Amino acid sequence: MDLRLNPTQQAFRDQVRGWLEENVPREPLPSLDTREGVEAHRAWERRLYDAGFAAVHWPAAHGGRGMDPLATAIFYEEYLRADGPARLNRLGLGLAGPTLIDLGTPDQQDRWLSKILTSEEIWCQGFSEPGAGSDLAGIRTRGEVRDDGILVNGQKIWTSHSRWADWMFALVRTDPQSSRHAGLTFLMIEMADPGVDVRPIRQLNDARDFAEVFLTDVLVPKNNVIGEIGGGWSVAMATLVHERGSGLNTAAHFHKMLAELVSMIPEESRGDTRVQEEIGWLYEHIEAYRYMTLRTLSELAQKKPPGPQGSMGKLWWSELQVRLYELGLQVLGSRAELLDGHDDGAGPPAWRQRYWLARAALIYAGSNEIQRNIIAERVLGLPKGSRRAV
Fold first, then answer.
1. Domain extent at residue 199
2. Cys-Cys with 376: which of 43, 198, 276, 390 at CB 3.0–4.6 Å?
């Protein structure tokens, strides 16, 4: 493939870069852990929307720019370079919206898409449950199909962004006699329903990025079903395609992290050959990851199914970022153990916070053990009995 930008791509890069240079806030926005921070990020999302940059990958008919995967990657690289604020409605813009575009009815698209695009409504994802995390087919939340709707009872867990969410897309089991992939239904659930109880999970670092969501007699209208009742598995698989190809974990993202890590290395450790070798290893693997993702983006832009590397992406980026953060903590030494708010200037507190989230990435979007099984069976063609050897 030709790695040079064509004139159209270069013009788009220049447009994005110019707008971001003029509009990205000079000071960080308040934390998304607070209502003030949510509203500040919502205002920023509205500016992105007004400029046509809220979701460049969405079709133009639905408010996007209809950009192909390569142009979308250009936007994300420029956004990272400009230190743009964290995106508020990632699950809406990256998952719920594209699922509605692919599989929603015109009425459903009219009802939800515009408010996702402006971040007027924030979305969370209700897939994981106790005992049904990586094994998504183990869903046990019940959905009783009645004349007046679907009555939902059950529990979701590790639900990101649910504290401020207005809607949740979720899988529930509507056929009590079914098992595994059959009998599941994909629903849009309004979080303001009195039967929805969100309980934030306090993490070791005192963050509350995730929550348990308890659903008690939540009556969901049938027109909130995406696809068919009982056909939720295929809808969920379409959603996960967008999750694993969202373009948020780019090589540019990792190069930025690596530069930040290098700036944190104390002067007395800069001559340490072990540190230098590890930095070299990380740089080589980020570049290898860049070429792998470019290959995938090129195939997608040509309407081709991604090759075997498409199954390797999540495994690669999640383990790469853990290794980056672990090296950062190592070079900080005892200073990495400081409590947030007691930093001595040796490294940003956000580095420690992001390390914990990086650990979670080994599990979300399909645990890495599951990803290795997929690669073993579907890419390498090994029998299931060979999993332990992979």
1. 123-231
2. 390
Using CA atoms, how far apart are residues 124 and 189, in angstroms rounded to an integer?
10
Non-local (6+) Cβ contacts of 133 within 8 A are 157, 158, 363, 367
Band (249; pLDDT cuts 50, 70, 90): confident
Query: CA–CA separation, 97 vs 91, rounded Å?
Result: 8
Beta-bridged to residue 186, according to DSSP, are 171, 226
Domain count, the chain: 3
Strand-pair category, 184-190 with 196-201: unpaired
pLDDT at residue 348 above 70?
no
Tell me the average pLDDT across 16-45. Answer: 93
Burial tier of 383 (Cβ tally within 10 Å: 0-12, 13-18, 19+): exposed
> pTM of the prediction?
0.84
Question: Quick one: which of 30, 32, 29, 28 has its CA closest to 208?
Answer: 32
Helix (H) or strand (E) holding 142: strand 142-146
Question: How many Å apart are CA 298 and CA 69, to the nearest integer?
Answer: 8
Q: Give a yes or no: residue 18 inside a domain.
A: yes
Integer Cα distance of 189 and 168 in angstroms: 5
- The rounded distance, in Å, linking the Cα atoms of 139 and 98 is 23
Neighbours of 325 (CB within 10 A): 20
Same domain, 150 and 210: yes
Residue with tokens 């007027």: 120
Give residue for tokens 């046990």: 140
Amino acid identity of residue 346, one-letter, is A
Q: Which residues are catalytic?
A: 243
